[in-house]
Amino acid sequence: MLGRAIARVGPCRFRPLTDGSHFDFIVRSIVYQQLSGKAASTIHRRVLEALGGTASPEALRAVPDARLREAGLSRQKLSYLKDLASKVGAGEVRLDGLESADDQGLVARLTQVKGIGRWSAQMFLIFRLGRPDVLPDGDLGIRKAVQQVYGLRRLPSPERVRRIGRPWSPHATIASWYLWRHLDGPAA
Known about the structure:
2 domains
């Protein structure tokens, strides 16, 4: 069944985002949480401008909260970014060496930061590190796509997504990419 979705979507164009630092990527991820792409892009651009062009723990700690709020950050996301800057700056959460951490260890490390849950850590694994076998079973888009592709009456639980997705290992990341693209509609 996934084969039909793959055929419909066409060649895989998945590429991890390697520009910038891991810190930049996490800042962007927090800013983008639960926002439309256009709104998130605008806020992210304004946040980077407030930080002098590049996100760093030092810049985040130095910029007044009011300036970041003016850029469009909610109080909650501001608290997440400040927690990230504080923990990375103090060495409580180390971002160096994440490439060599196993998936579970990386998730455990990143979820020490307020506002970064399992889903956000999985997005880091997929879109920053390009890990090949990540299935974000709790992602609403993945669940909706599995429901459509497999003709399920109800939205599948994360456990059911894991069961259905077992055969995709060790390429669950690519299967996930195809499921997300399936939701985008026919290729243009």
